[in-house]
From TrEMBL:
Location in the cell: Periplasm
GO terms, molecular function: iron-sulfur cluster binding; oxidoreductase activity
InterPro entries attached to this UniProt entry: Hydrogenase_assoc-protein, NADH_UbQ_OxRdtase-like_20kDa, NiFe_Hase_small_N_sf
The organism of origin for this protein: Syntrophobacter fumaroxidans (strain DSM 10017 / MPOB)
Protein name listed in UniProt: NADH ubiquinone oxidoreductase, 20 kDa subunit
Length: 312
């Protein structure tokens, strides 16, 4: 009998769902073994019944529940809690779900500040009251899933690599809990490192790094941090390269921006990156801003009002 799977997206962009579709032919193998009983991004299934006759959100029972996105408003919270009640195993899919993701950058501001900025710009007329009818109320912060419900499996990434999504689903179907490597992007980075003290100041990534000929192998390119570009590989969980191993951004000769979140789930990428820079003799005051070090992991109260981006 097929394993029942329910999937939900909350404060998210659907990139994680695209990773599921990007399984390609492997998705056909998965669909032979699972039955998606609820996945709003792909299937029409209403919260309150197909005719809206229900009084409460109702999601079918399932063995596995996959949730992408963070929790930003009361509807997100209600849906997440219903998924937790109806699913035996909950997977937090993507960094928005595991650590807040890009939406958690809003935690640097109070809700009133965000609404004022949104509705009181130079291109909109000032309003006395903000729209509220039929709109879920905002929570006081953007929350990662495990701040509100119990999470069993974490699959970070913006978006998670399809290889990891497949490995997780295949493992669950075999009765095994998937495990991600507790290693950093630097551990899988093949670039050439010459050691500490190679650079003292950071610069913005506004020019191509030096890597010789365009077709030069990536293992001949010098470490991007040692070229003076902020690269967060040392404080970011490995895995973005999937089975090919080489980190995706590094393969494109672009510095790691930390999209897989901290190496350890409860890590603080901002503090760890500052420590890494200081230990390498790099002036932390040359950072263009500090908030961007938490651009993917600002939930869990790491970003709070008052943490504003420094003007460049």
């Amino acid at each position: 009998m097929a394993v029942k799977v329910a999937e939900e997206w909350l404060n998210a962009c659907s990139g994680c769902e695209i990773s599921i579709v990007d399984l390609g032919e492997r998705l056909l193998a998965v669909l032979d073994l699972v039955e998606f009983v609820h996945i709003p991004v792909l299937l029409d299934h209403k919260y309150y019944g197909q005719l809206g006759e229900g009084k409460h959100i109702n999601i079918p029972e399932a063995t596995v529940g996959i949730i992408s996105g963070s929790i930003r408003n009361h509807e997100h919270l209600e849906v997440a809690e219903e998924m937790r009640r109806k699913c035996q195993i909950i997977i937090a899919l993507g960094t928005c779900a595991t650590h807040g993701g890009i939406p958690a950058l809003a935690n640097s501001y109070r809700n009133q500040e965000i609404l004022d900025r949104y509705y009181h710009t130079e291109t909109t007329d000032k309003v006395d009251e903000y729209p509220s009818e039929g709109i879920p109320h905002l929570l006081d912060s953007v929350y990662a899933l495990d701040e509100k419900i119990k999470v069993d499996i974490y699959l970070p990434g913006c978006a998670p690599h399809p290889d990891q999504v497949f490995a997780a689903l295949a493992g669950l179907l075999a009765g095994e809990l998937p495990k991600l490597p507790d290693r950093s992007v630097c551990d899988q980075c093949p670039t050439v490192r010459e050691g500490k003290g190679q650079v003292k100041q950071l610069r913005r990534f506004l020019e191509a790094p030096h890597y010789g000929a365009p077709d030069e192998p990536i293992d001949k390119m010098r470490c991007l941090l040692e070229q003076g570009f902020l690269c967060m590989g040392s404080v970011t969980k490995a895995g973005c390269g999937g089975d090919k191993i080489v980190p995706r951004c590094i393969a494109a000769r672009v510095p790691c921006r930390g999209c897989y979140g901290p190496v350890q789930h409860d890590g603080n990428q901002l503090l760890q990156m500052l420590n890494a820079l200081a230990s390498n003799g790099i002036d932390i005051h040359s950072l263009p801003d500090y908030v961007s070090l938490l651009r993917f992991s600002g939930a869990h109260k790491l970003l709070r009002p008052g943490h504003k981006q420094k003007e460049a």
